[in-house]
Queue: 4 jobs
Job 1
Amino acid sequence: MSEGDKREEQTTKKRGSKTPQGEMSFLEHLEELRWHIIRSVSLVIIFAIVAFIMKDFIFNEVIFKPKMPDFWSNRMLAKLGELIGTESLKINQNPLKLIALQMSDQFMLHFTVAAVAGLIMASPFVFYEIWSFIKPALYEKERKHSSGAVFFTSLLFLMGVLFGYFLIVPFSIDFLTTYSVSPEVENQINMRSYISTVTSITFASGFIFLLPIFSYFLSKVGILTPKFLKTYRRHAYVVLFIVAAIITPPDVFSQIMVGIPLVFLYEASIFISYVVVKKREKRLEES
């Protein structure tokens, strides 16, 4: 038995195996949480150091690649544009020069990007630590029904990160760097602004893809219901397609291409909430 399993077993004994009413004191809970946080932060730092060392790959092949014509998404969208006869999908075809406004910008942004990369790479382990802290407080049946939580949470988050990076980021870069209020104004893009846009969109997409997970747990505790999600479905659709319209070129095809996955996630959240609520109602009827 590994040290982590022994620790979890000891924690489970302290908290009680039959009920979630634990016998640990408040300070013991804080101590347990502290070690989960320490392990999570340690893993993020380790991955961040790896990313810091791999500077050339991280910046040239990951961070700066979406603004280049030979980026995979830009090439595929250009081919798709040729097939359907539209020029609007040929994005990021012109070179984009970035500038650093302060002497320390490039050095500080190196640390920032390394930290973000470390957090993304360590995310499955961070989710595992969060789950390890929550799991002993659940009933045995709840643990059984929640098996695979770390896997699906990590999978959805990383899918969201990839979706944001390969689809939303290229559209956003093309739109924001080519938008002009007047020919008299020349766009000179700050490196800090560019990196902030890429990282914020990527992270936001990762968390948006966790919507089904949030729906599951909020429905589990009775905060969210399928009725609420259905009632505000049309409002949610409007918001989702407004977001898609903002970050894509001004044509319907591009907006639909980005909006459909977001709508699918919302519908999946309704279904998950429905299943959870039905199971809870069935247990109440049987008791």
Job 2
Amino acid sequence: MFANSPAVELRRVSRSYGSAVRALDDVSLSCPAGSWTVVMGPSGSGKSTLLHCAAGLDRVSGGQVLLAGRDVTAASDDVLTDLRRRRIGFVFQSFNLISSLTAEQNVVLPLKLAGVRVPRSQVRAVLAGVGLGERAHHRPRELSGGQQQRVAIARAMISQPAVLFADEPTGALDSRSARMVLDLLRNMVAGAGQSIVMVTHDPAVAASADAVVFLADGRIVDRLERATTREVADRLATLEG
């Protein structure tokens, strides 16, 4: 799908809020298709801003943002909305599930709101893919935190997005549930060629990724490939110290 272009590319992107705050400062980043990239840095370094700009949730002040080779920097709100519904998946620390809906109904809700009909067999297949094939009719209160996060991942994947963006997706989970979610994401990259861009503060989580990008004061200051937990932790410590 992305043979000739990165899944996500930022070209000299900046993002300012008013005249005093420059959250991103001349950031260039290329995330290869079929790869898992993690973004780390101290609090206030610009991690979430980078994620939101890359995903089209926030407008850049300067530079370009490309998704699957398509320049979306100046795309209209309607185009961005359609892109988010059909080509981009989102997973956050808060699961954002509707408590009155079943797992199956939560998974299909975004596409239903967009007027897209999805065969039940496809919904069941996606739930089975995250290990919840037998939980389709369970509501969030009947699921553990890890299971709820996997429902959220299934919801993000139902439209077969070009890129999955994740903001601290394991932050609210216990270590066992977090490991299951990380294994699921790794299998998506290795088995299905999925592209993932994730923000996390946890070096152990970051060590699961193909590459770790470090931000400080709105700038990229380092990048590690296939790093260990210790290597990630040591590099992060130098930025937070």
Job 3
Amino acid sequence: MDAPVHQPILTRELLELLDLQPGARCIDATIDGGGHTAAVLASTAPDGAVLGIDRDPGLLTAVRGRLAEAVDAGRLHLASGNFRELTRIVTVRHFAPADAVIMDLGVSSYHFDVSGRGFSFMRDEPLDMRFDPDDPELETAADILRTRTVPELTAIFRDYGEERFALRIAKAVVACRDAQPLRTTAALLDVVTGALPPRIRWRAGRSAARVFQALRIAVNDELDAIADVLPQALSVLALGGRLAVLAFHSLEDRMVKQFFVAERQAGRVRVLTKRPLRPSEAEVAENPRAASAKLRVCERIV
């Protein structure tokens, strides 16, 4: 965790759209590796401040070390929690109103590459997938695979992963678990591969990626959390404050787009991105995980 584990995306475009001035106060609701926060602290120096929130205690520990100078100077405040509790966290920390709120949705490079919790099938790990491994209320991915019915698993794989062969895979999971529970990423990859029609098993990684994404979303209740946090994010902004959201798949981006449209029609915001901003070819070449990113920004006007 000493080296950066997550490369921030669209940082220059984000700062331009937020138009933060020295002394501004910003909430990074998904601080992750601290890349966006570091850029915000630099652009709001000497006395701007950031409240950084994350539900993964490991990430907060790493950021606390990486940005220790800002923490010691009182410019960076860190809070552990789910961003769906944004209003409560901000109230407890006396950090409202804010000039900007940033949300970088989805999964971190840290979770894929370092966490050991089964977010990727590229290595054999326990099927956990919880962003906060200390949360006793969260089921693991293995729990979901063990307890859900075929229709329930089909809905998860279809709705959250947009997987064409959701029913086939769900049936295979249930058939397999009757003999032996699915506890590891390698075991799940084998089941997904075997469930596909033989002619396309050579590209099983595509279906596996969608199934793993769907399970991660289900484990962490990500879409409901986004629905909960968006109105809260708007409410903690000062007039003229800006909300920036980075989404990485169509379900997330659709929710953000629909929220912005509804708030614009209600006369509460001005949308600053008629179309979502996408990373440049150069940025994607440097960081392939940026390829699906979409940035939307709006400004509170009442």
Job 4
Amino acid sequence: MRRLSLAIVAGVSTIAFTQLASAADLPRKAPPAPPPPPVFSWTGFYAGGNVGVAWSRSNVNYAPNDPLSAEIFFNAPFFAPPPSASVRDSSLIGGLQVGYNWQFAPAWLIGAEADFDWSGLKGSATTVGPFFPPSTFANSVEQRVKWFGTVRGRLGYLPLPNLMAFVTGGFAFGRIEQSATYTTDSSAIGFVAPFTFVCTGGGAPCFAGSSKGTETGWTIGGGIEYALWQNWTIRGEYLHVSLGSKSVTETAITVSGATIPSSFNANFGRTNLDIARFALNYQFH
């Protein structure tokens, strides 16, 4: 009986081990695949800030404004009109933007954006010429771009779901301040009835004028924008902005008797800005 019990135990043990070994050889069920990452949606409102650099340029030429300035400053052999000048500058800029995108196809979107940037652009130039030789005059001009903004449409193409290349263009506006001053190193009096001027010499201002206002124009550009996370994008872009021209009337500061001050115009051409900047935007999905 004891031998029979041992045989039964041995048989049962052999069967159990065989089943365990067979179970170990069975294929295990693979864990579930992780869900795919969500595809970035460009549709919706966004807002953010930008920083960059702007370069400005504007050409200046001169024209008489009355018979005295036409005769003396632009025709007489002892005088000459101020030579044309070019006003240029570069400055850091920074500002804000808001906009809306509509992704109307997997690889295309259209949108609209408005931005506003503060600027430290301040360019100047000085030209010289004869004034009763060997005396000379110096005419100095200055232009400041205090701020500017744009309202633009955008057309974007998505080579990747989170990468957009775009072109943009539209309306531009900006605050422009301009001034001009004419000085001489000798004294003189000019008179063609009823216009006069009196220059006291010694570098004192003889004619001066200024203007300021908001000029309008157009802009065009393009750039690349990349989606960092589900609600944040970073952008690099270039814009060319062209704002309207303006004339500054340089008027005689001192006159002789009860006469009309002579004057001439400093004609500032269009103010052109080239802008390179980076922007960070938050998308409101």
